[in-house]
């Protein structure tokens, strides 16, 4: 079957009424998640996994997986839309990839052009979403055909590259990022070893036999960590929200932002495909590029619409691009995609090259639903921007305890153990302490997801080679991945030694 | 960034690494005598964590601590909410979902900001009852119901 045929089948799945509803609910919640301060795309997606798991519990496995992932991905790219709203109206980014949007977006709002800025960011996000999806459609099949030829050695090295990429760019100190990665891998070894059936680090506690639940750790580290941070360090008074006058951008605005949108989308897409380099880097680079190409770069920071259009397109394109390594290689390149991967694994569906053969309805249904979801976002966001602006005003007093209650509900509804609730609280405190002190938690979660797979592939490769580690270096593709992984870690280090500023990816 | 925290953290992770290395020695080797048993991976990881922690410990002696502005932490609020949440976990199965959730939310709302007790009660009630019925009646999930004395 051709790619177009698969895509058509995907649309048939995405147009099923329940999946349309799931995409709709996903993008609405996603937008709200992006708008609400203190809850980002990672915690938003993590919080919703158990909810979707229960809603879809009556369906056959792969239909349930398709529906859930459609909703969760909707939350992911919806949050990328929503994040710009607070940047523009409040000068506080809803999630970290919208940080650069504050520079020009808030200035525009102060000049009474908030509506235009919001509209342009919605239009830019839509174009970016579509461009990223076209890239996804074109690249998915060829990439997974290549990946299908990988042996365990190649897989091991590729996953190593994924981990190195995420740790290399995360946080201010690479030592800390690597520590978090290794610690995540260690946590992943708890439980019964899948190959030999031997219990590791379980100390005869039956609760530990199945290992630490990824969902509990992710919700604790991200969602509760953020809640505890806000409770402890009250961010002071909430700022005044800029007024929205007219929503539709003028012709001049459209003309000024058309090229930045296209440039931002392409740039964002390619950055998104790279593991480790997520939406924050994409929006940052797009801003720098627009400034470089601009005829009057000094107008940036004073309300230049190109400074909103470019980065906002880039961060959405990046989130679309990040789906490629996840779906085709089974390597999540960011924290949020790691959580999406965890969700798929919960349904016993392994993302990776075989996904397109074994579960085409999940892969293509998701891709098709992203077209629909992006359209929904555009249609919703233009008229509803005022409504979403109201969401910002949700008092923290009610919001924070409710996030705690939702995460308790979510974890308990899936795990049915009180142990996981205590673990959740512990992870919340740890998440707060760690991220406050620049220990990035995204690599930890990523390592926890990838750990068992890395180990299995390593052991399979070593069994093939009779215990010779040279297998990882003699297979050419594996060697390339290992060299790339080393470069990813060493180049920022060398740049830092030379005194250059290194861009840091704060969130995935 | 706090130097003291980094120092304690590096020592903590150093100990974790050490324990992992020692404990992984107790994992039996694979039964079929393969070269790569279940203990090699965790043992290496422990060793790498140990080395990285030493590196971080060394780094803490190099950099100067940033004299952070005295932040105004709300320890009391945080402590009440954390203990409240722990009690919530403890009572969830004993008192059932609705009662424990309602109790936790009410305490947490009032801890965040005193006053408006009626509004707090209403929101806590709507949330706990709403979630319970939506989930267990409508979606067919199971949550601990009400206590039976």
Can you offer a commentary on this structure?
The complex is a heterodimer of chains A (508) and B (149). Chain A is mainly α and 508 residues long. Chain A is built from 21 helices and 2 strands. In chain A, strands 1-2 form a two-stranded antiparallel ribbon. In chain A, a hairpin with a 6-residue loop joins strand 1 and strand 2. Chain B is flat. Chain B is mainly α and 149 residues long. In chain B, helix 1 runs antiparallel to helix 2 and helix 4 packs antiparallel against helix 5. The chains are: A mainly alpha (508), B mainly alpha (149).
Features:
heterodimer, A: 508 residues, mainly alpha, two-stranded antiparallel ribbon, 21 helices, 73% helix, B: 149 residues, 5 helices, 0% strand
Straight-line N-to-C gap of chain B? 51 Å
| Tally of separate helices of chain A | 21
Unreliable stretches of chain A: none
The biggest sheet of chain A amounts to: 2 strands, antiparallel
The rough form of chain B would be described as flat
Fraction in helix of chain B: 55-70%
Kindly state the number of beta strands of chain B.
Answer: 0
Number of helical runs of chain B? 5
Strand-residue proportion of chain A? under 5%
Main pleated sheet of chain B: none
Helical content of chain A (DSSP H or I, runs of 4+): over 70%
């Amino acid at each position: 079957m051709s790619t177009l045929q698969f895509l058509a089948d995907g649309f048939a799945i995405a147009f099923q009424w329940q999946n349309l509803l799931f995409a709709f609910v996903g993008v609405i919640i996603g937008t709200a998640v992006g708008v609400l301060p203190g809850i980002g795309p990672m915690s938003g997606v993590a919080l919703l996994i158990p909810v979707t798991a229960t809603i879809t519990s009556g369906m056959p496995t792969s239909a349930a997986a398709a529906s859930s992932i459609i909703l969760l991905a909707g939350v992911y790219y919806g949050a990328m839309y929503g994040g710009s709203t607070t940047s523009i109206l409040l000068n506080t980014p809803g999630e970290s990839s919208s940080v650069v949007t504050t520079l020009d977006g808030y200035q525009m709002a102060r000049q009474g052009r908030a509506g235009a800025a919001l509209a342009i960011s919605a239009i830019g996000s839509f174009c970016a979403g579509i461009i990223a999806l076209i890239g996804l459609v074109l690249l998915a099949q060829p990439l997974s055909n290549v990946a299908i030829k990988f042996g365990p050695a190649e897989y091991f090295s590729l996953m190593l590259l994924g981990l190195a990429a995420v740790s290399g760019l995360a946080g201010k100190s690479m030592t800390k990022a690597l520590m978090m990665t290794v610690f995540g891998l260690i946590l992943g070894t708890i439980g019964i070893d899948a190959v030999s059936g031997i219990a590791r680090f379980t100390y005869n506690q039956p609760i530990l036999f199945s290992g630490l639940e990824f969902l509990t750790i992710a919700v604790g580290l991200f969602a509760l960590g953020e809640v505890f941070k806000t409770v402890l360090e009250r961010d002071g008074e909430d700022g005044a929200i800029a007024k929205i006058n007219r929503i539709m951008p003028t012709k001049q605005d459209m003309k000024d932002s058309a090229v930045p949108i296209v440039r931002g989308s392409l740039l964002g897409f390619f950055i998104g495909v790279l593991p480790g380099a997520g939406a924050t880097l994409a929006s940052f680079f797009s801003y720098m590029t627009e400034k470089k190409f601009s005829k009057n770069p000094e107008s940036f920071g004073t309300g230049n619409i190109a400074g909103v259009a470019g980065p906002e397109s880039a961060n959405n394109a990046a989130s679309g691009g990040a789906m490629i390594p996840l779906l085709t290689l089974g390597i999540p390149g960011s924290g949020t995609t790691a959580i999406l991967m965890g969700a798929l694994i919960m349904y016993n569906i392994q993302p990776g090259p075989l996904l397109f053969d074994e579960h085409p309805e999940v892969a293509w249904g998701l891709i098709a639903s992203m077209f629909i979801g992006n359209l929904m976002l555009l249609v919703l966001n233009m008229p509803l921007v005022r409504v979403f602006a109201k969401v910002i005003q949700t008092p923290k007093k009610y919001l924070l305890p409710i996030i705690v209650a939702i995460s308790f509900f979510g974890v308990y509804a899936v795990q049915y153990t009180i142990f996981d609730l205590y673990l959740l609280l512990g992870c919340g405190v740890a998440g707060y302490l760690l991220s406050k002190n620049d220990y990035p938690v995204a690599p930890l979660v990523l390592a926890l997801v990838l750990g068992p797979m890395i180990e299995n592939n390593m052991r399979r490769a070593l069994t093939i080679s009779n215990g010779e580690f040279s297998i990882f270096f003699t297979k050419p593709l594996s060697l390339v991945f290992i060299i790339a992984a080393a470069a990813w870690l060493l180049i920022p280090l060398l740049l830092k030694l030379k005194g250059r500023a290194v861009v840091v990816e704060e969130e995935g | 960034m706090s130097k003291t925290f980094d120092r304690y953290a590096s020592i903590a992770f150093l100990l974790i690494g050490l324990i992992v290395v020692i404990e992984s020695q107790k994992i039996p080797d694979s039964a079929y005598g393969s070269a790569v048993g279940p203990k090699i991976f965790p043992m290496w990881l422990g060793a790498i964590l140990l080395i990285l922690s030493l590196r971080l410990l060394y780094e803490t002696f190099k950099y100067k601590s940033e004299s952070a502005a005295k932040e105004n932490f709300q320890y009391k609020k945080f402590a009440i909410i954390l203990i409240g949440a722990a009690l919530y976990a403890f009572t969830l199965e004993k008192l059932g979902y609705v009662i424990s959730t309602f109790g936790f939310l009410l305490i947490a709302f009032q801890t965040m900001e005193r006053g408006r007790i009626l509004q707090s009660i209403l929101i806590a009630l709507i949330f706990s009852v709403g979630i319970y019925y939506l989930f267990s009646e409508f979606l067919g999930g199971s949550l601990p119901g009400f206590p039976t004395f």
